[in-house]
Amino acid sequence: MYRDDFLQKKLNERKEGHAFRELRMPGGKTDFCSNDYLGIVHDRLLKDPVTEMLSGSTGSRLLAGNYALIEQTEQQLARFHEAEDALIFNSGYDANLGLLSSVPQKGDTILYDQLSHASIRDGIRLSFAQSFAFAHNDMADLQKKLVHATGTVFIVTESVFSMDGDTCPLQELVAMSRQYNAHLIIDEAHATGVVGGKGEGLVQHLGLQQSIFARVHTFGKACGCHGAVILGSRDLRDYLINFARSLVYSTSLPEHSVAMIQNSYQVFPGMLAARDRLQDLIRQFQSASLRFEKLVSDTPIQVVIIPGNEEVRKVADALQQQNLDVRAILYPTVPKGKERLRVVLHAFNTPEELDRLIAALR
Description:
Blueprint: H1 8-16, E1 30-31, H2 68-80, E2 85-89, H3 92-102, E3 109-113, H4 118-125, E4 130-134, H5 139-147, E5 153-158, H6 170-179, E6 183-187, H7 202-205, E7 214-218, E8 228-232, H8 234-243, H9 245-248, H10 255-267, H11 272-286, E9 293-294, E10 301-305, H12 309-321, E11 324-325, E12 327-329, E13 340-344, H13 351-360
């Protein structure tokens, strides 16, 4: 057996801090943890494409991995999201990594919300630009940093935050970006399919698509499939094809995956009733009194703060015993003292199921 005992030190630190992660199967419990917000996967709404017309990947898109279906799908996504152009990536992580590591240059400045997703932070770490976090959704703190920013300036944030369930003050961000000649990058991962009349995302819902440098939409949440797209100008697309290493050096998505993206975009825009049911459940949970702190959120992501890794895991384990699949989010994924239950609501959850969860948290 290979001697890799040097790994044990870090693993033991995780275990001692009650932060050790393990994979587990859903096990048929009531789903309050997946990102299948609209139930596209739960209800098997995506039809398997005709396999005879599809093939696998044969290389990166710059070599043998480009094909008509992926370019047609990019055009479809650009039209739906009212962007000049679009470029598909293998995942939201790849999209953020490629965009943020390649576009900002040495001497530029990236200002990012301190609660931004790990993929955003990792992309920034790979950039040669200087970077500074601003306090979550705090426009005064952002402005202080904009005053001292140098070079080309980028402001990066999420439309819906994956661990708090709140939204960014997008109109204020647009106004500030105009005032300081900064470029806004908005990650719409948890808004895609959910926010807006057709699930188009927060940017279009507010009619601000012409004011955003780049938008990232991912397909692994409400869309029920896989991959991501960066929306922006034709020049941005050309730039990423040339400089985004996570695209240049990755095998492209197979045709089957891209066909599923097309399929999802034919399904979720019409799921008005599902989005209405989600809003009903959100109101039901927000109006409930719990014995723990509950964050304000008008999105499917609902948060119950239970400080301490050990404490929040105990509550999550008790919910699992009641057949309620709610997962604990531990430090260091979230700040120490802000450990939490991340309760995810879905269009297929019933009011009675949610009542059971609320009763267990009272």
